[in-house]
Amino acid sequence: MTSPFKNKILLGTALITCVAGLSAMQAHAEDAFDAAQKEEIGKVIQEYLKENPEIVIEAIEAYRSQEAEREQKQAEEKIIDNREYLTRADAPSIGNPDADVTVVEFFDYNCGYCKRALPDIQKISEADPNVRFVFKEMPILGPTSKTAAQWALAAHKQGKYFDYHVALMEHRGPKDEDNLKKLGEKVGLDVDKAKAAIDSGEIDKELDMVTKVGREIGVTGTPAFIVGDKFIPGYIGEDGLKGAIADARKNDSDGG
Q: Is the peptide bond between 139 and the residue preceding it cis, with omega within 30 degrees of 0?
């Protein structure tokens, strides 16, 4: 049996389609209805929508839900296509290399919500010995975002990635090259080698690759997470990450 709610959604969608279709019919089939018939159809639709305005909202919400499902499916397909790159062993990461769940974070060092996500990640990593966090710099918030990302990846080449990552996330001053060098010195970087690595252009290629893959998946802002095969845009907090990790484990155990 069709539920009243579903009937409303179907009727609302039909009405919207009908309204949109009227202009098309007018453009392509002027003789389909005479003027009196067109006026009567319009009155029926307008009257019904006045009496039941929630129909339009419900239909729009149903459409949005369908679009979200479609986008999630597309994201999952791209995650599978790029899984080797996203989770490769030499990527900047913390946690268990053989973890049963890998979380990938796309982030920007100038992103306030990315800064808020760092303590969540640290707490989960400390408490859960069977999860791995992989970090993908996606500098989309200006030139200093890119410079900061370059220095972080240069630190990765010296085995100092996460120390530098934390220092950068906690840094409250400008992210100009002088400050980035000072942060590097504090965590034990050879800043001359770091600068040479940045100038080589290799790091820029990696940043371009991150952006390319991120865009394919559907990353339009930071932070954005991949937990298992699921794409999660936006900040979701410690509990949200824990829930997503638990879901990934359940899906894996269920063979899903």
A: no
**Domain C-terminal end among 70, 105, 126:** 70
Residues 127 and 231 in one domain: yes
Q: Would you state the torsion angle of the CA atoms of residues 93, 95, 99, 100, taken in this order, to the nearest 10 degrees?
A: -90
Task: State the helix-helix crossing angle for 191-199 and 177-186, rounded to 10 degrees.
Answer: 130
Regarding whether 119 and 206 lie in a shared domain, the answer is: yes
In a domain, 77, yes or no: no
pLDDT level of residue 61 (50, 70, 90 thresholds): confident
- In this prediction the pTM is 0.75
For tokens 């989309």, what's the residue? 140
Among 43-57, 106-120, 132-146, the minimum mean pLDDT is found in 43-57
Both 152 and 238 in one domain: the answer is: yes
129-166 pLDDT, tens per residue? 999 999 999 999 999 999 999 999 999 999 999 999 99
Task: Report the chain's C-alpha Rg in angstroms.
Answer: 25
